[in-house]
Amino acid sequence: MRTNENSISIFPYSSKSHPAYKWIVHYTDIQSGLRKKSLFKERDEALNFRRVVASESAHHFSTKKMPLSDAELEEYHLLSKRAEEVGITLAEMTQFIADWTEYLSSQYDESITDAINLFIKCDIQRHRLVHLRETAEEYLTRLSTGLRSRNYIVQTRHVLKMFVEFFKDEDPLLVDITKQNILDWFEVAQNRPGKGGKPLSQVAKYNTLRCIQIFFNYCRRKELIEYNFSLDIEKPVLLKEEPKFYTVEQAELILWASKPLSSTRLLLVLGIFGGFRLSEMLRMKWKHISFEYNDVRIDGSMAKTRFRRQVRLPENARVWLEPYSHTNHDPEEFVFPWREAEKCFLYQELEVIFSSVHIPRIRNGLRHTAATYHYAMSENAVVSSDQMGNSPGVLKEHYTGLVSKSRAKAFYQILPK
User: Fold this and answer.
1) Which helix (H) or strand (E) is 288 found in, with range?
2) What is the rounded distance in angstroms from the CA atom of residue 333 to the CA atom of residue 394?
3) Which of 319, 334, 346 is nearest to 289 (CA)?
4) Cα–Cα distances in Å, from 4 out to 8, 10, 31, 112?
5) Rg, Å, the chain Cα set
6) Residues 307-365: tens digit of each pLDDT
7) Using one digit for the tens of pLDDT, what is the confidence trace for 98-125?
8) CB count, 10 Å around CB of 26?
């Protein structure tokens, strides 16, 4: 009989390679739509996992949306708290909004969103007529208190300073800035000299325009402008280069050169075998790592794409991680000691390791290495993209045919000395 594609099944499990695991759960991952399986040592653990997956599947089936991420749950609790402060429950607040929505529709043929927008335009127009300089300062303040990297904040601050100074002594209203103003500024900005007086690279020009586009997207979300004209400006063309990665031999030497039980070794292991972005690893807490099941949970608030994913690590990574499983840590404690503003210290430690084995450090090399060998091993762009947290198209475009499957097998046999 054919199995229902959305079924969740538990079966006894026996394997010589995994003797400790006695139960297996077959289920459909709601994000990728793929059939997957998870192993468990105890039946109660398998039953609990089935309940969680069934709950998420039911939520997805009824709402056609992904379950709430940790960040969304925090927003939900915050909204509930705000409702309590004015003496009502969140359910009463929701019912009140529903009643008003129905009233506006039946009496005025108007949605509640239209009514609020009209109120903003007519009654509090003075709040919408804001100037460029104060909005740029507010935006930079928000960036500095968020999770953006120091380099990103510095670059954005530099670009916005150029944009503000372009208008000289004027401080125009945001609504008065035209597409031609942005075009004229970008013409000047992209022709400015770069480091050492050299012309700007295409990447630098692209990033300059992208910073302004993101700033005006922020203004649009805040209802400070009606339309983001910067999105109509053609971006500089970037030539796509083949990703650079470490060979099996290089990866082995790099890992061996790291100090056992150090934070740098843990970062290298997770980066090379898990393919996590550096920003994801620096936001990672001990509660996200399961040494027992050899996987890592990336919440939406941690990921660049804002999508949650479960990354299953290869079996050789389990051996590398085994010493860390015996250490005691607060689940809410960050795994790595470096914050975004302290990445320079991490880079210094990595430089010492790479220099000791005479291997040049590659930008994003750990993630490129993980993606290269995972795709070669799986031969399935959907499976590998689910692991890496990007699209199948990106995997196919950048990582097809870079290494053979035999080299991938050798990569997943790298073990500590």
Assistant:
1) none
2) 33
3) 334
4) 9, 14, 17, 41
5) 26
6) 788 899 999 999 999 999 998 889 999 999 887 667 778 889 999 999 999 999 998 99
7) 777 777 777 767 777 776 666 655 544 4
8) 15
Q: What are phi and psi of 37, to 5 degrees?
A: -145, 150
Q: Using pLDDT thresholds of 50, 70 and 90, give the confidence band for residue 15.
A: confident
**Single-letter residue type at 134:** E
**pLDDT digits 0-9 by tens, 134-156:** 999 999 988 887 667 777 888 99
pTM of the model: 0.56
**Residue 226, helix vs strand vs coil:** coil
309-312 sheet: strands from edge to edge = 289-290, 295-298, 309-312
User: Rounded CA gap, 111 and 109, in Å?
Assistant: 7
Task: Return d(Cα 20, Cα 309) in angstroms, integer.
Answer: 25
DSSP 345: H
- Burial string for 308-325 (b: 16+ CB within 10 Å, else e) reads bbbbebbebbbebbeebe
Average pLDDT of the chain is 85
- Per the listing, tokens 């470096």 go with 338
Q: Quick one: how many helices (H) and strands (E) in the chain?
A: 18, 6
The whole-number pLDDT of residue 127 equals 45
Residues written for the chain: 417
Q: How far apart are CA 396 and CA 239, in angstroms?
A: 17
d(CA 233, CA 266): 43
- Cα-Cα-Cα-Cα torsion 250, 254, 256, 260, nearest 10 degrees, comes to -160
Measuring CA to CA, which residue among 17, 28, 94 is closest to residue 56?
Answer: 28
Instruction: With a cut of 50, say whether residue 226 has pLDDT above it.
Output: yes
Q: Long-range CB contacts (< 8 A, 24+ apart) of 192-200? A: 192/162
CB 247 within 8 A of CB 403: no
**Token pair for 223:** 């209802």
Tell me the C-alpha distance between 47 and 386, whole Å.
Answer: 24
Which is higher by pLDDT, 86 or 349? 349
